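Re: the 214-residue chain
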Amino acid sequence: MKKTLLVSLLIFLFVSPSFARAPFTEFKVGYLSPNDAKAGYLFGINLGRMIDESLSWSFDFNYFQKGYKKTTTVNKYKTPGGLEIEQVQREMEFTTRIIPLFAKLNYEHPIGYKSPFYLRASAGLGWELLWNKEDNYVDDVHKTRFFHGFGWQGSAGFGMEISSSANFFVDAIYNGSTVKRNKKTTELGLPTWEELDISGFGFRVGVSIVGFGW
């Protein structure tokens, strides 16, 4: 059902007569707090085309990364010149990377007549990819786990015109997704898998440039 909705949205976007309308590109940076992962920074680019003066469609590409490192001091000494030097060692290092990919419908509407401010909202369906790299140097254990699954995202915010073709915006976002891996069947015929809930709230700021894109 989820894949059917995503494919239907993609077909609608490509057959829509708006495909030839004015393009736009959004560059954005934000913060996301997934349920089963530590909060981190989110970077993205949104490429789309206008349908009319308020509606548009787009493809949204995002990159999330959060790392954790554990180091300890194994020695400390002072040089004749008075420098205090510490010798440290890395014991553990974990890095989580998430790539959410969405096809989206977007809405923007001015606040008042000829106002530079406007309200905006969006909704998207897509697929999310997650890599978790674990390096335990103490036990010499090195693993990379890959998860993937259906995702959706909703946002609401406001923007402001900063030039004839560029707008600044701030959005509150919610990302909804549970990614899975290692699907198999037990000896009793029961399906099993591993999963992570990476749903969570966040925010982003960015700049939208109308007339720039594909």
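The longest strand covers residues 84-110.
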